[in-house]
Amino acid sequence: VAVVTSIYAAALREGREPTPQEVAQLEAAFSRQGFTQGYYRDQKGPAMFGTRPEGTRDPAELFDRVRQEYSRGE
Hints:
mainly alpha
């Protein structure tokens, strides 16, 4: 969530749309495969969450940077 709010807050403050680099960061943070019907059909549990394709890594550097910015109150 911090990735989205930081990118869109900056874009709104600066009166612009997200840059191509920011869009790529949004896609990296939220790219998932496998939409589920979990909430819709009240079937809550681990199987309801989307997953990343096998071999795809979490964007650790992006998450670390955003975590540090959040800790500083940015």
